[in-house]
Write a structure and sequence with these properties.
Order of helices and strands: HHH
Distance between the termini: 20 Å
Radius of gyration: 13 Å
């Protein structure tokens, strides 16, 4: 997991792409999850956002060759 803004965010994205880590761009999801610290338990109000991430990951993992 990683979290950052500005240059840090760009570096995180660059590293992800360089290592073939799927990246999903979703400004609404970013807005919701930016309020949660990395070491914080997921609050109930962001369960829907977490479900969207998990659904994306399941779709990516079902692709041939992954």
């Amino acid at each position: 997991m990683a979290k950052g803004k500005g240059r840090i965010a760009e570096k995180i994205l660059d590293l992800a792409r360089a290592n073939s880590v799927p990246v999903r761009q979703d400004p609404n999801l970013v807005q919701v999850l930016s309020r949660v610290d990395l070491d914080q338990a997921v609050p109930p109000e962001v369960y829907h956002a977490v479900a969207a991430i998990l659904a994306f990951l399941y779709r990516v993992n079902r692709r041939p060759g992954t």
